[in-house]
UniProtKB/TrEMBL annotation:
Protein name: Aconitate hydratase A
The keyword Iron-sulfur is assigned to this record: yes
Ribonucleoprotein listed as a keyword: no
Pfam family, one: Aconitase_C
Length: 755
């Protein structure tokens, strides 16, 4: 039986009436995304048609999910909200704080030894406020959500950008910062600009070496890392219905890499099969009763150009196995000779040192079974892996079932390391090097979602390429980046020329899923007696102090850093070893912007102080400004804040005294996070004004006292030579968000309202 089945039935009980009302109001057939959005309006039945990409709308998500790295800050904020219990079903999943090094059992025990204080905190807060808790080793948040909580037609938010994975089971699932999650957990409406809609029509059929991963790698090539910003991507067509539920999850998962608000698929037979296989026949039965309402209206898919803002068509029968990278998830290269040519032209190492399979993107039973079919061929044909091989199962249920069926044993015979059911290398939790900063240039392939510089192992010289689990297995065996298993052969131990056959596998385990201990802890019914203790001397956890409003008089602000090129949340607040401080705002602020490239010297973590004219680390420089009472500004390029949903990338500058971030364009989640923390997130009206900003500049906000929706702001930029430029900046704040700014943060406003 499913978790929260009564809630799911309550949602389904509203779908027909609300969708019918939305059709009438909009006067047209509806996409699946629109049906889910209109079903989840905070005010109930729809009363107006919303303008895509323009109207801010209040929604009522069905549930919230948090992973341990972001849950710390989210729950520290929730503790200030004045509530006794979460208002919607909520879960916490311990998957980020487990470092991959030697193997599952050793690594898990090390994590328990090192991070026990944090795990105990999360468990006790969960118990107190009615939150379901998944222990360390239980699995990766998004695989666990897909197996236990996701349901067709539902809406959820999660404090991780890859919450979108649940779109594989027909949800609108959206990654947010912790402050957004606090709104929903506190019973408040959740605000989102009504998304634009991108339709992706899949024709043909996947076969041979192509996999669902190749679909999203191709979409990333087409749309780039910012092409999906502000939009929901909806997949449809015969190629979509012919794909497994977990394959759909893989595609939706990496929608985060194109900046999409989320991605989704209409309810179909593969989703029903998955629900029944994961002991949720009750959800499948309930969904079947309204199945026409859990996918788009037929007219939409018949004439998609009339109903989507953009339509892409991909013929799966013509799709090739792809590798995307290095350093960005949208640089796509087909396996084979084209990779040889590109690698030689760009000096990418062709020798591959590691092949890694897993992460929330590709750690299902189907993924492991198909990759293991390649591993089994290596054993049968006398081949050994030329690269090292690592596996991260997605959940304890997947791991236990895969071990029972001999899948993990096949990998182990090839000397693969089976890591904990956790994120591991995908989130930078990989003890690959003693000194990552000075590690050698090399290439790795993985089935993860992100491949920014230093992302997996902390080594700026690691060239990471994203591929399907099947192709990762083949390349790990071959040891070469340009190996094409469709055409190329290998020499085995006996000197014989052999060729790998096409991968095979199972959509679902033939003998069903099985697990002895799934790692779930149910909260007590009444948590009023549960005490949450935070040691005031802890280096890992720190109770929050409310932010003070910045105000409408910003004069004499200095430039902290002008970031050059790509500046993701990894650049603003690194993961890896810094994950240990995710619950301690002051300590983790020592990584603030240390990965951003200074536009004036092209170095990282080395900026000029206008107090003494000397160069120093970004956090140290900013702390000196804060001590002197001097406000500061950060300037950035396009898609600033791309990547993870981590709100630390907004909270750290706010904590240290940065008042405004001015960029060419923002990634959606990061812009929202800045707003939630009471900061100014602004964009240049004229992008070329970025070039006007000089190293010794001072910023005077001339009309911030007139801060209002849809009104430009004017900033005087005073240069060291006495000259001045007046620039116009834009913003997307509505009146409610301006109130967050005026109160100092969205959380301050919640506390005020609850009081």
């Amino acid at each position: 039986m499913a978790f929260d089945i009564d809630m799911i039935k309550e949602v389904y009980g509203k779908v027909v009436e609300r969708v019918d009302a939305a059709r009438k109001i909009t006067g047209k057939p509806l996409t699946l995304a629109e049906k889910i959005l209109y079903t989840h309006l905070w005010d109930g039945n729809p009363s107006k048609a919303f303008q895509r990409g323009k109207d801010y709308v209040d929604f009522a998500p069905d549930r919230v999910a948090c992973q341990d790295a972001t849950a710390q800050m989210a729950l520290l904020q929730f503790m200030q909200a004045g509530k006794d219990k979460v208002a919607v079903p909520t879960t916490v999943h311990c998957d980020h704080l487990i470092q991959a090094k030697e193997g599952a059992s050793t690594d898990l025990q090390n994590a328990l030894n090192i991070s026990n204080e944090v795990f105990n905190f999360l468990e006790s807060v969960s118990n107190k406020y009615g939150i379901g808790f998944w222990k360390p080793g239980a699995g990766i948040i998004h695989q666990v959500v897909l197996e236990n909580y996701a349901f067709p037609g539902g809406m959820m938010i999660g404090t991780d950008s890859h919450t979108v994975n649940a779109g594989g089971l027909g949800m609108v699932a959206i990654g947010v910062g912790g402050a957004d999650a606090v709104d929903v957990m506190a019973g408040m409406p959740w605000e989102l600009k009504f998304p634009k809609l991108i339709g992706v029509k899949l024709t043909g059929k996947l076969s041979g070496w192509t996999a669902p991963k190749d679909v999203i790698l191709k979409v990333a090539e087409i749309l780039t890392v910012k092409g999906g910003t502000g939009a929901i991507v909806e997949y449809f067509g015969p190629g979509a219905t012919g794909m497994s539920c977990t394959g759909k999850g893989t595609i939706c998962n990496m929608g985060a890499e194109i900046g999409a608000t989320t991605s989704t698929f209409g309810y179909d037979d593969s989703m029903e099969r998955y629900l029944r296989a994961t002991d949720r026949a009750d959800v499948a039965d309930a969904a079947n009763e309204i199945k026409d309402y859990l996918t788009a209206d037929a007219e939409v898919y018949a004439n998609p150009e009339q109903y989507f803002d953009q339509v892409i068509e991909i013929n799966l029968s013509e799709l090739q196995p792809l590798l995307n990278g290095p350093f960005t998830p949208d640089l796509s290269t087909p396996a084979g000779p084209e990779m040889t040519e590109k690698a030689n032209a760009n000096d990418w190492p062709l020798k591959v040192e590691w092949g890694l399979i897993g992460s929330c993107t590709n750690s299902s039973y189907e993924d492991l079974s198909r990759a293991s079919s390649i591993a089994q061929q290596a054993l049968d044909k006398g081949l050994k892996t030329k690269a090292e091989f690592g596996i991260n199962p997605g959940s304890e249920q997947v791991r236990y079932t895969a071990e029972r069926d001999g899948i993990l044993g096949v990998f182990e015979k090839l000397d693969a390391t089976i890591f904990t059911n956790a994120c591991g290398p995908c989130i930078g939790q990989w003890a690959r090097y003693k000194d990552p900063k000075n590690a050698p240039k090399n290439s790795i392939v993985h089935s993860f979602n992100r491949n920014f510089a230093k992302r997996a192992d902390g080594n700026p010289n690691t060239h990471a390429f994203v591929a399907s689990p099947e192709l990762v297995a083949a390349i790990a065996i071959a040891g070469r980046l340009d190996f094409n298993p469709i055409t190329d052969t290998l020499i085995n131990e006996n000197g014989e020329e052999v060729k790998l056959d096409e991968p095979t596998g199972w959509e679902l385990p033939p003998k069903g899923f099985e697990v002895k201990e799934n790692g779930y802890l149910e909260p007590v019914a009444d948590g009023s007696g549960v005490e949450v203790v935070v040691d005031p001397n802890s280096e890992r956890l720190e109770l929050l102090t409310p932010f003070t409003p910045i105000g409408n008089e910003i004069k004499g602000a200095k430039l902290l850093i002008k970031a050059y090129g790509k500046c993701t949340t990894d650049h603003i607040s690194m993961a890896g070893p810094w994950l240990r401080y995710r619950g301690h705002l002051d300590n983790i602020s020592n990584n603030c912007l240390i990965g951003a490239v200074n536009a004036y010297n092209k170095q990282t973590n080395f900026v000029k102080s206008q107090i003494n004219g000397e160069y120093d680390a970004v956090p140290a420089t900013q702390r000196a400004y804060k001590a002197a009472g001097i406000p500061t500004v950060v300037v950035g390029d396009h898609n600033y804040g791309e990547g993870s949903s981590r709100e630390h990338a907004a909270m750290e500058p706010r904590h240290l005294g940065v008042v405004a971030v001015i960029v060419k364009s923002f990634a959606r989640i990061h812009e929202t996070n800045l707003k939630k923390q009471g900061m100014l997130g602004l964009t240049f009206d004229n992008e070329s004004d970025y070039d006007l900003i000089q190293e010794d500049d001072t910023f005077n906000f001339l009309d911030l006292n007139e801060f209002a929706p849809d009104k430009q702001l004017t900033i005087e930029v005073a240069h060291a030579d006495g000259s001045k430029d007046e620039i116009k900046v834009n913003h997307t704040y509505n009146q409610s968000q301006i109130e967050w700014y005026n109160e100092g943060s969205a959380l301050n406003l919640i506390k005020k309202q609850n009081a």
